[in-house]
Structures are given as C-alpha cells and as structure tokens.
Amino acid sequence: MPDSALAPAPLARTAMAFVLAGGRGSRLMELTDKRAKPAVFFGGKSRIIDFALSNAINSGIRRVAVATQYKAHSLIRHLQRGWNFLRHERNESFDILPASQRVSEQSWYLGTADAVFQNIDIIEDLAPKHMVILAGDHIYKMDYERMLQQHVDQGADCTVSCMAVPRMEATGFGVIHVDASSWVVDFVEKPKDPPGIPDRPDLALASMGIYVFETKFLIEQLKRDAADPNSSRDFGKDIIPWLVQNGRVAAHRFERSCVRSSMEEAPYWRDVGTVDAYWEANIDLTDIIPPLDLFDKSWPIWTYGEVVPPAKFVHDEAGRRGETISSLVSGGCIVSGASAHRSLLFTGVHLHSYAKVDGAVLLPNVDVGRGARLTKVVVDRGVRIPEGMVIGEDPAEDSRRFRVSEKGVCLITQAMLDRLA
User: Which HAMAP family match (predicted)?
Assistant: First the structure.
C-alpha cells in the first residue's frame, strides 16, 4: 500500500499530557486536610485525578507527567500503585514531579505555569510535539485527540477548552469571549458581568483549565513569563491573557470532544470543589440513569483497584435485613442487617445491624455502628461512627458537632468525633 493511502497518525501519539495536581482545594474543608484535592475519593472507587489521567490514556496519549505539591503523599502513593503500567521500553512514560526547588532553592511551584516551567528539561528530554495541559481536579470524559486536531487545523498558538454555561453562573470561572470564528478576543478571570457567546448571548464560555500548545512555542512562552517580575506564573492569569493580546488563541467547545455513552444526555463536566458539589456529584451517580456513565466500557475510568473480597449482605429478618436501594456498593463492603438508600459505599465500608444511611457518601473503610442513622452526609476515610449516633436530622445539633455546608450536608471526620468523647 502506498504511503499516501495511510491514514495520518493520531496527534495524541506524539503529545504529552501534563497534569497540574498541586492544589489543596480548601473549599472541600476537612476532606483536604490530609490530601490534595486531586487525591480525594470519587464515585465509589476512584480518585478525582483518575478522570484526567484516564482521558489522556483513552485518547491515545502515552507520555504523562503529574506535578504535585500540597500534601502529596496520598496522591503519589495512588499514582504509584494505579498508574505504573506505562513502560519506557514501549516509548511510554509516567513521571511524578513533586515541587522540589529544581530552579531555585527558595522556590516551590509558584503557580500553574511555573510548575511546567520548572520541569522544562524533563519535557525537552521526552521531546513531545504537543503539550496538553490539564487540571487534575475535575470530573469529565473527553477525547483530547479532537482538541489536538482542531489546534493543528486552525493553526493556533494556543487552544483553550471551554464549555457553555448560563451567563451569570460563569462569574466564578475564567470566561472566554470569542468572535464568530471561535478566536478568543478576551479572557477575563471571574468577571462580574461575563460576556455572552455571539450566537447565544444568554450563555458564556467558561474555561475548563485545559490548554494545547506546540511544545517549542510553550517553552518560549514559559521562559518569557518567568522573566517577567510582575507575573504570578499562572496560565489563567498570565499566559493565556498575554497570548490573547499578542498571539492567536482558539476556543475549543467541550461538546466537540466530550465522550458520551448512549445513556448520557448532555456533556458532563463538574468542578467538585465544595462539599455541596462533591456530595451532589457522587449522589447523582445513584440515579437510574445518571448524568455520568461510569459503566461505559468504551471509555473506562482507570484507577488503582484494591484486592478485596466481594460485597456481602447478611441477615434476613424483619427490621434486620441487609439491603441497599439505589446505591453503589464497592468491593469489601459488609451490609450486616443494615439498610442503605441512595448512597455510595466505597471500598471496605461496614454497616452494622439496624444502622440506616440515606444520601450518604461513605469513603473507604468507614464503620457505621449498630443502630446509627446517617442522612445527607459525607464521612471521611476510616471514620468509626458510634453505635446509636444520629446525624442529619437535627441541624442545630449537627452544626455543633460537625461541619455543615450551606445546603445542609454534614461532613464528618474522626477528629470531629474524637472531640465529642
């Protein structure tokens, strides 16, 4: 077959994904006291960062780096256990890049752009054609190959992924103002009056924190930015606005590359950055037809799978029946004469007899004591709920003992329970 008849190689094959995973995520309160936001558990068995990494692998990218900083041990351990299948001998790579004062003894990662700048030598050694810069703390399914293809076809200096949201809901995002040809004409960080889309003025384009560059061009921009004493070393605050004024920045609509199964009606992207948003996104998965399909075999969410026995349900007598309804139950769980409704039980959760949970997100190895009742809660990993404790039925009492969100979700940690003893 002549070379001209061969299909062009996917751009992802020569690209590198650089995942920014150093942030704390302070709005998740005590959930990030011991772990960075990307390491927070999600969906029954995954971590938040698994979505960006799975998207990269499923898109065909085989060179991946993850920059870590804040309380990174939990995250690094997860990456080592679950993402060590990429092999150098197959022309693949997976690098964990903790902040390590590689450029200056006084400097950790000063911003998102600086996290990439401090690792330029590693990037140059791998020599990818394009760089896909990713945030490690969002929940979504996306084919980056389609974004890479638009970037090349349009001849952009930088391509920014964005999604349409109701205009006044965009005040908490970086907002992209585009012309009729989808070139970015302005980039505004958290505007009070977001600009609308030309063809849909009731909507605005919110940046998803996903950027594509040709590697050589990106390195030039990072060095230019590092030499600017007034820069905050951030992609959204510095690199992208400068390029909008001095280069060619294209907008990539998320709906063009969002991966959806036949069960998913609309493009799905969530920033689970608050306790309320985190609880809602997890509980949404218990719907009969959830907005995010984790059962889609064509686009799996890879993660570290612990070796645990199957879930177990025991006792079958009136008032003491092990059962779950509209819930997700992970391996290693024991539902012993207890009931769970519209809840997520992560790996190794144990519900003891007569316990009842409703709207509960129970992280790994939570133990709910005999006769306890939990409603609309998030319980951190390894917490032991005492026998007979009732949470989620008395707002005033809950506020005295635990962290209660604006929408009434109770966040419970072992330290909070220990203070009650």
Answer: GlgC
